[in-house]
Amino acid sequence: MFGFGKKKEEKKTEKKSFLKVDTPFEKPVDGVKPPKEKHLTSEQDEKYQIVLKHFQNPELKVANRENDDCETGPLIDDEKAWVTRECILRYLRATKWDVKHAISRIEGTIAWRREFGINFQNDDKNVVNSHLIEPESLTGKEVVLGFDNEARPCLYLKPGRQNTKTSHRQVQHLVYFLEKCINFMPSGQDSLALLIDFKQHPEISANVETSKIPPISVGREVLHILQTHYPERLGKALLTNIPFLGRAFLKLIYPFIDPLTREKLVFDATFSEFVHPEQLDKEFDGLVDFVYQHEIYFPALVEITKARQAAYMDRFYKFGAVVGLSEIDLRGDADEVTVPVGKHPYNANTDSVTPITQSINKLEI
């Protein structure tokens, strides 16, 4: 009906030299770089400047809960570091450049992040942290490993390795790993690749009295989070080994998936077409011999991402601690800002940006 779940042809196995890997890759394969960002039109830049000015307002206060604006608070530094140039552009693109809607969506996500417990750049301060979700990670059902051919970090979801009963903590676990995957993004890349393998592992979860396919309510909650609070973060989603129940579940949630996201879904995917073999698990025809060992992989993931979060905030303070800094600079290693606040990364040293005062007169929030 939707073109997923077709049986793949068996490939002949070839003798290969595999690389033993126990921890996450920290950068893409040499030569793999993010594609350059498209230039903004003058109208798009005008709208960007208005949203930027709104969040630069020192008097701005945002709700502390997603659906309750009775209690509000000013942006903390961690939230200012989250409202980057690229963040604003992601929400503008997601709202088809509707300024009011983009502002509302960004404020809604800030409120959700506060309520959900991930509003700090330092995980030790967050409610959703490594200690909370570690029981969900014991079998490696979610893993950040490698980068695709456009330097997107790859997040693997492996439902067949499910080890717990359905609960809100499973949703927290997914969000935690989304955040970790974002920590791995190199300078110039702001989207990730989602690789979903439905292969069953009954020996792992034989004692778990639950279906490997989540309830529709959980599926809809996850979709709401992904589409509402992580817009434009999904660069590609590859799905493989889809069982009958998996196809049934996908058909049930498919109507709730927005059209732009559907375009990024590739069913019965051959992962090796999208990920360099040197960073792809041999299970998917790559050259990486990766066996999940929780006591090795998980501490390494936590250590690497904490270091990256700390470096991100160090650079945020170094470059002025203001809203609108570029992720190119916050994730980069240059000593000076390469994308001044309010400028485009590929014309940052020019004065071709439309004056903000003209933009504000033209468009009202």
CATH superfamily of the largest domain: CRAL-TRIO lipid binding domain
The third-level CATH topology of the largest domain is Phosphatidylinositol Transfer Protein Sec14p
Largest sheet: 5 strands, mixed
Structural class: alpha/beta
- Count of runs of 4 or more consecutive helical residues: 12
CATH class descriptor name of the largest domain: Alpha Beta
Strand-helix topology:
Layout: E1 19-21, H1 42-56, E2 61-65, E3 68-74, H2 77-82, H3 85-94, H4 99-116, H5 130-133, E4 142-147, E5 153-157, H6 168-183, E6 192-197, H7 216-229, E7 234-240, H8 244-253, H9 259-262, E8 265-267, E9 288-290, H10 294-318, H11 327-330, H12 356-362
Parallel strand pairs: 1-9, 5-6, 6-7, 7-8
Antiparallel strand pairs: 2-3, 4-5
Helix pairs in contact: 1-3, 1-4, 1-12, 3-4
Keywords: Endoplasmic reticulum, Microsome
GO biological process, one term: response to xenobiotic stimulus
Subcellular location: Microsome
Structure description:
With 365 residues, this protein is α/β, with parallel strands linked by helices. It has 2 domains: 42-119 and 308-345, no CATH class; 132-292, Phosphatidylinositol Transfer Protein Sec14p (3-Layer(aba) Sandwich). Helix content is 36%, strand content 12%. It is built from 12 helices and 9 strands. It has helices at residues 42-56, 77-82, 85-94, 99-116, 130-133, 168-183, 216-229, 244-253, 259-262, 294-318, 327-330, 356-362, and strands spanning 19-21, 61-65, 68-74, 142-147, 153-157, 192-197, 234-240, 265-267, 288-290. The strands form 3 sheets. A 5-stranded mixed β-sheet has the order 4-5-6-7-8, with helices on one face. It has a two-stranded parallel sheet with strand order 1-9. Strand 6 (192-197), helix 7 and strand 7 form a beta-alpha-beta unit. Helix 1 (42-56) crosses helix 3 (85-94) and helix 1 packs across helix 4 (99-116). Mean pLDDT is 86; it is low at 348-365. It is found in: Microsome.
